[in-house]
């Protein structure tokens, strides 16, 4: 039976590869978009279409069936309607839409759709997830590879690419690309050391540890004029090559770049599907958006945790499971749809819980845990943290507070009746009521050294299979 299955898989892969060759060339087309909205409006407009380097994605897994993300784009044959390629993603605009600011003003964000270079005219359609969890088209355009309005020239070189490790051809592996931001030319050896240190932590964490041979990891040296990045919250203003900065959505720890155009131009120097920007700063911070970008500050005492946690967001669409930290997002309405994140649920139908197959017999849904005692301590730690933020305390004080919280959280969350078991534990995704996470503790919930829970591990492996399996 296994031999028959293997033959079927190989045959299917051969057919898919032949389909790729008939529809695409092995290079990347990139459609840059302006995503504008606010006050109930949403407008998408084309910025430009350019060549974006060699194609690094799978030549056989052309269709995204994960059902993740707030958005989805499809590349289709306009004559037959046949979808040739699809991917799901989330965006900075989509996050901003959940903030209070979006109700009173308008803003524009930049994002990119990357897909294999078509051999003929195609239709590019962008779809958005609705309240019923279905995707509906909100924008489309034709893309003719022979058009003078598409710049087919190869991207200009920017930065210097080097390899941490390579397991095989880019089209048969998951390609992770690291970019250093806020490192001067003399600090590039530090970037190399930071990249190796953080990568080692990622691949010491399951399931990345067991699946390391399915990855390639490369990095780009891109020196900055001065050390560090923009930190508006403390009045330290700087300009760097891809404009990574703290204070996204006015959160002192949220670290991303708004300058997607500059970012993509730099990244085009190397094959990649996923990225993480390593920021040369001590201030605790990071960010991660599914299929968009991830960042981490490298010199906080919790840099390894942040690197892995944020990559979980970016790589597998994992949702934050914590709910007692300050965030910019508005509280979700009670009737919100089932979250698309694979590790968060509204638990409206326990019999059809999306990770029900991992729940052991006898585990109640929802699953009881010592929530009240946890929240009491969490409120105390949050008050201390807000005091540190308000008086712009030294980073060492934040690190000390986080260690103190870790010493309290780890044994508490490990000693409950259903600790270590998969269930549905109330409190997740910034909401103390109505949303549930799979286990009492996980790297998506706390800074504890517990790794990913079983549900998160499975979600990660699903994405690995999407890019690194025939």
Account of the 3D structure:
The protein is of the alpha+beta class and 470 residues long. Helix content is 25%, strand content 26%. The protein has three domains: 136 residues, Peptidase M64, N-terminal domain (Immunoglobulin-like, Sandwich); 157 residues, Collagenase (Catalytic Domain) (3-Layer(aba) Sandwich), CATH 3.40.390.10; 110 residues, no CATH class. The strands form five sheets. The protein has a six-stranded mixed beta sheet with strand order 9-11-10-14-16-15. Strands 5-1-2-8 form a four-stranded mixed beta sheet. The longest helix has 22 residues. It starts with a helix and ends with a helix. The relative contact order is 0.12.
Largest sheet: 6 strands, mixed
**What is the CATH-assigned architecture of the largest domain?**
3-Layer(aba) Sandwich
Radius of gyration: 22 Å
Query: In CATH, what is the homologous superfamily of the largest domain?
Result: Collagenase (Catalytic Domain)
Q: How many distinct helices?
A: 8
CATH class of the largest domain: Alpha Beta
Extended strand count: 18
What name does CATH use for the topology of the largest domain?
Collagenase (Catalytic Domain)
Sheet-strand content, in percent, reads: 25-35%
Quick summary:
The protein is 25% helix and 26% strand. It is of the alpha+beta class. 42% of the residues are buried.
Protein traits:
single chain; 470 residues; alpha+beta; Immunoglobulin-like; Collagenase (Catalytic Domain)
Topology of helices and strands:
Blueprint: H1 2-23, E1 24-38, E2 41-54, E3 71-76, E4 83-89, H2 92-96, E5 107-118, E6 122-129, E7 135-143, E8 150-151, E9 160-165, E10 174-181, H3 188-202, E11 215-221, E12 244-245, E13 256-257, H4 260-267, E14 274-279, E15 286-289, E16 293-297, H5 303-316, H6 371-390, H7 395-414, E17 425-428, E18 431-437, H8 454-468
Parallel strand pairs: 2-8, 10-11, 10-14, 14-16
Antiparallel strand pairs: 1-2, 1-5, 3-4, 3-6, 6-7, 9-11, 12-13, 15-16, 17-18
